[in-house]
Amino acid sequence: MITAKDPVWISGDVVVGGTLTIHPGTYSVTDPSFAYSWYADGRRIAGADAGTLVLGLAQAGKRITAAVVVSAPGHEDLRVTTGRTVPVEKATIGITTKPAVSGTARVGSTLRVTAGAYDVDGVKVSFQWLRDGREVRGERDSRYVVGQADRGHRLSVRVTATKAGYEERVGVTTSTPVR
Questions:
Q1: Phi and psi of 54, rounded to 5°?
Q2: Does the predicted TM-score (pTM) go above 0.90?
Q3: DSSP string covering 6-67, please?
Q4: In terms of domain of life, where is this protein from (predicted)?
Q5: 23 with 10: CB under 8 angstroms?
Q6: Cβ contacts of residue 122 below 8 Å, gap of 6+?
Q7: CB 69 within 8 A of CB 79
Q8: Cβ distance 24 to 11 under 8 Å?
Q9: Cα angle: 5, vertex 11, 13; to 5 degrees
């Protein structure tokens, strides 16, 4: 009979894109072999049968467990399971270059906002122009023509970066006074 000397457990970053590793523990037999399986909220993850698991978008919000089947010649197999992880978090989008407004803030001129740069590929960026911190209705383009209503106010842009599997990243550019 195979008996466990210490528990099986999981380590790693519990975030989409992170890698989890099974630590199979030690047992009462010499040179055991291990077979692995991974589960998300109790459901088997298809094809996940290695000692590591790269967490995908399908696991976001779910708790991960793993099972290890321990085998040794002349002994009946032993199946042991890990405890559950915390729910898998979405990854975060890092900013490498902040979005910025360029142009002259004067009635009749055009201002432009750059999307900025991010530490992950495939980020979608959306814009919302703000006057004194409040949304300018319908102004969601990277360009904005300064109007009479803007005179004496401050313009800025709320920039929202999104990508599946990542937390939405929202920031506001430095405000620009309109002359």
A1: -90, 120
A2: no
A3: S--EEEE--BTT-EEEEE---BSSSS-EEEEEEEETTEE-TT--SSEEE--GGGBTPPEEEE
A4: Bacteria
A5: yes
A6: 163
A7: yes
A8: no
A9: 175
Contact between 166 and 16 (Cβ < 8 Å) = yes
Taking alpha carbons only, the member of 2, 108, 11 closest to residue 53 is: 11
- Could you read off the pLDDT tens digit of each residue along the chain, which spans 179 residues? 899 999 999 999 999 999 999 999 999 998 999 999 999 999 999 999 999 999 998 999 999 999 999 999 999 999 999 999 999 999 899 999 999 999 999 999 999 999 999 999 999 999 999 999 999 999 999 999 999 999 999 999 999 999 988 999 999 999 999 98
- 149 three-class SS: helix
Q: What does the chain come to in residues?
A: 179
